[in-house]
Amino acid sequence: MRVQAKICGLSTPETVDAAIAAGAAWLGFVFFPKSPRDVSPELAASLIARAPQTTGKAAVLVDPDDALIARIVQAGVTALQLHGDESPERLAALRRHGVELWKAVPVRTRADLDKARAYRGVADRILYDAKTPKGTLPGGMGLRFDWKLLEGLDHPLPWALSGGLDAGNLAEAVGTTGARLVDTSSGVETAPGVKDVDKIAAFLQAAARL
């Protein structure tokens, strides 16, 4: 299986089109007002409409309420990517929406990886991401964790790798961890929330070579 890639934090037609053209398996849209990548469900729906059905569409959320989730699902997302303190019970309740459920696990130490086990049976995928400092955004900060922490790990669920990935370090990241799905946001930007079509293409080309 070749390495698949997700371009996260998309907010314009041009960058969505660039991601699709270069072969992104997943598109990511952030619904979190504190993020520079925040989009409305209405804008997301118009961007999602540009993508083929075979491309996944993930909504990045932080402890969302039911009303927001309903609007987002209606916009056409196919996965909810949860970055807050959502419990396994919360994920179980979200099953009714009929979309994939991804749970982000912030990683700094090997012990952090143990938290993924609690989501076996309720999440479809774990997203290992770099743990960010308290009081900052839960992701999209360009931080990476020690990829060697994932060496030999018995993963409880299908998983993806995130945190500080870009075209220059992707081969090392995949070679170290064995990731088959990689996720980038700040690694394809010129400034927070400003995606660059050339960087998107370069990242996806790097993934295609792996």
Q: How would you describe this structure to a colleague?
A:
This protein has a single domain, classed as Alpha-Beta Barrel (TIM Barrel). Helix content is 28%, strand content 22%. The protein has seven helices and ten strands. An eight-stranded parallel beta barrel has the order 1-2-3-4-5-6-7-8. Strands 9-10 form a two-stranded antiparallel sheet. Helix 3 links the parallel strand 3 (56-61) and strand 4 (79-82). The chain is globular. The chain starts with a strand and ends with a helix.
Summed up:
The chain is of the alpha/beta class and 210 residues long. It has helices spanning 13-21, 41-48, 66-75, 88-94, 110-113, 170-177, 197-208; strands at residues 4-7, 26-30, 56-61, 79-82, 100-107, 125-130, 159-162, 181-184, 189-191, 194-195.
Produce the secondary structure layout.
Layout: E1 4-7, H1 13-21, E2 26-30, H2 41-48, E3 56-61, H3 66-75, E4 79-82, H4 88-94, E5 100-107, H5 110-113, E6 125-130, E7 159-162, H6 170-177, E8 181-184, E9 189-191, E10 194-195, H7 197-208
Parallel strand pairs: 1-2, 1-8, 2-3, 3-4, 4-5, 5-6, 6-7, 7-8
Antiparallel strand pairs: 9-10
Helix pairs in contact: 1-7, 2-3
